[in-house]
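Now for one record.
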Amino acid sequence: MRVAVIGLDGATFRVLEPLAKRGEIPTIAKLMKEGSKGQLETCLPHYTTPAWKCYSTGKDPSKLGVYNFYKIYIDKNNNRINTKLVNSTDFKAKEIWDYLSENGLRSCVINMHDTTPAKKINGIMVSDHILGDYYCHPPEINEILERLNYKDPDLWLVVDDREKYAEILKKTIQSRFDLAKYFIEREGKNIDFLHLTIFHIDSVQHSFWNDFDVIAEFWNLIDENIKEILDLIRGIDEDTIVFLISDHGHVKKKDEFYLSEYLIQRGYLNIKIDYVSKFMYALGLNTNRLYNILSKFGLLPLLRKSVPKNLRRRIPNKEGDVPADIVASRINLKKSKVIHGGLGILYLIEKDEMFIEKIIRELEELKHPITKEKVIKRVYRKEELYSNCSEETPDLIIYPNDGYIISEHVRMDGKIWGYERGRNRWKSTHDRYGIFIAYGKDIKTGSINARIYDIAPTILHIFGLPIPRDMDGRVLREIFKEGTEYVIRKPKYVGYEKYVLREKIRELKRSGRVK
């Protein structure tokens, strides 16, 4: 094995450094102390989707064509918006394991975000959601997953029961490590590259940020499993380079800003009333209450089978919110100047420069009604962030100040701020800086600041493979010890499609099939 990446969703040095000082995560602390360590700047918007794909492709969201958990299609001719939840087929770029596969190298990819349906790669892939018939490759490993009790948790059923919620999260996290250890033990000598994502530590921090002892329990669990994985890897190849990374960081939540409601009240966004959602909200019916009742009487499978998913998602949640992608179909484009595409991304219907400057100014000057702090750090135009802008690219991208959530939901009560109804399920929110730790015999001790786009080209460089010129990252040569091949050998940049074609022609000539 040449490279192993352990992705820890939402990991932050705000948590890891205090735990290391307390002696509670000895393995991670050792990697932090002896390896190359630093903050990992992620993309904007700084969320799980598209961040993990920015890592695996080395490209910014504009080259992936994805900016959120769902895609938006604006149909001005019919005055409507269509939405689609993102899956693996929506991303336009190749990933690390695709390049490795093309060069005969074998990968094992477990729980990488947005990999459902699973790709056919040279090796093993278990996607992030166990859905349908295409969540793992090759399909026969499904039997192994069942035997190891590897499954998706129904966390929303127990979200209000802290003990059960934590118990399910622990079992889920452990199952991801168990599967990785299973494949390392049985196929490690034939695996060149390993990727494992531990997604649910993000959920832990969102829910238990105010209870550091609970967070410490989970990181103890993760640390123990990382030690076991490192021991297994060392038994196969002592030269393996290990990366610990996260897609974003975490910070204590201050409040939630309901941007869609703000835009509605300012006359910038017009949405037709959804009487189904309004009626359920008026009756006090929400997702938690309905699901708990149906689960108690064994009717949940019937609901899933007989009621369309889009109708189920029109049921308000406990706080009286409806997801923005469900609301999008009721936006009146003719009466709207801007569309909130969720997570603080805005599509402009009104393209007048004076209006654009006005809405940017209003958002950047927005202050919280209680703290009087500015809520928005900056509003970017798409050309300031992205290298491949098109009509599908959001026109404005909002970067909130630490602690403020730009909610993608629409409220049934018309409130703009979370505190107004005591919304407090999430105790923390994302910030832009995750973790980067590199460790191995050829890795030097030191500090580094990297971007999420830098990891893919660095891994290709380790394998001695050419790096596509359209990657937005760079090779982090400064993490390697002087005199190692990774420092001596200069990165090779190519137009990758031409390189693949040239190599195939050479292979055909070597085999005698062409002259």
